[in-house]
């Protein structure tokens, strides 16, 4: 019995190891070759496993891509939740939320490239790949809720919250994507703190609730 359990543990470790090798190889190859050009053969060669091992973990390349997107967005969501309630003012909290997104992406060049390319596929094929589309919707909805918390506007309407979340996602990912583009792939620089602060302050000024003076009149 003990020997059988030991063999099973070894098999589980090997399976977990091959899974992780495929995930890391998939990220690396896609960031180097691009989503369209990457094949399962490229990934298995980089992971040093056979195609049978790939299919034991993922039914298709799209399933691997879905896994990569899901866990990449999980990282962004967790970073946002940790910061949305920290800070003295709405502008402070929004700036921390934005910096959290930028911090993850600025150290994950592979994730910036992956998310950028998958967005392009979903825009070009609006009716296809609904499972991947739901991952982006999940991320944006999480950002929308984080924005409500940062602004202390729990009743901010769905449309306004969605617009705001898309703007923040676009600011973080778009700034880094263009930085990588104009620097010839060498960029991963986070936007300057003053730029993040200005962006957050502008949003806060527009969305944050205003307090009425003690006499009850509307503020000018």
Describe this structure in words.
The protein has nine helices and no strands. The chain folds into two domains: 1-58, Homeodomain-like (Arc Repressor Mutant, subunit A), CATH 1.10.10.60; 61-207, Orthogonal Bundle (Tetracycline Repressor, domain 2). Helix 5 (90-106) runs antiparallel to helix 7 (130-151) and helix 7 crosses helix 8. The longest helix has 32 residues, at 2-33. The protein is elongated, with a radius of gyration of 21 Å. The protein is mainly alpha-helical and 220 residues long. It has helices at residues 2-33, 40-47, 51-57, 61-83, 90-106, 109-124, 130-151, 158-182, 193-207.
Total number of β-strand segments? 0
End-to-end CA span: 79 Å
Classify the helix fraction into a percent range.
over 70%
- Parts with pLDDT < 50 across at least 5 consecutive residues: none
Roughly what fraction of the amino acids lie in strands? under 5%
Task: Estimate the global geometry from the Cα principal axes.
Answer: elongated
CATH superfamily of the largest domain: Tetracycline Repressor, domain 2
Radius of gyration: 21 Å
The CATH architecture name of the largest domain reads Orthogonal Bundle
Spell out the helices and strands N to C: HHHHHHHHH
Quaternary structure annotation: single chain
Q: How confident is the prediction overall: mean pLDDT?
A: 88
Characterize the largest beta sheet: strand count, sense, and whether it forms a barrel. Answer: none
Query: In the CATH scheme, what's the topology name of the largest domain?
Result: Tetracycline Repressor, domain 2
């Amino acid at each position: 019995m003990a020997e059988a359990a030991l063999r099973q543990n070894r098999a589980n470790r090997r399976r977990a190891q091959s899974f992780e090798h495929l995930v890391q190889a998939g990220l690396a190859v896609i960031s180097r070759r691009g989503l369209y050009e990457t094949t399962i053969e490229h990934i298995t060669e980089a992971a040093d496993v056979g195609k049978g091992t790939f299919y034991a973990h993922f039914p298709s390349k799209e399933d691997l891509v879905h896994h990569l997107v899901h866990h990449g967005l999980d990282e962004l969501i967790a970073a946002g939740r940790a910061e949305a309630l920290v800070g003295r003012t709405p502008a402070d909290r929004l700036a921390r939320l934005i910096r959290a997104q930028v911090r993850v992406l600025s150290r994950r060049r592979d994730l910036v490239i992956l998310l950028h390319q998958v967005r392009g596929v979903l825009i070009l094929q609006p009716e296809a790949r609904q499972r991947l589309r739901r991952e982006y919707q999940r991320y944006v909805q999480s950002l929308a809720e984080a924005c409500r918390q940062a602004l202390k506007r729990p009743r901010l309407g769905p449309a306004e919250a969605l617009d705001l979340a898309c703007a923040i996602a676009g600011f973080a990912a778009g700034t880094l994507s263009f930085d990588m583009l104009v620097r010839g792939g060498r960029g991963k620089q986070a936007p300057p703190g003053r730029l993040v602060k200005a962006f957050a302050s502008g949003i806060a000024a527009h969305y944050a609730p205003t307090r009425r003076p003690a006499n009850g009149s509307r503020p000018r």
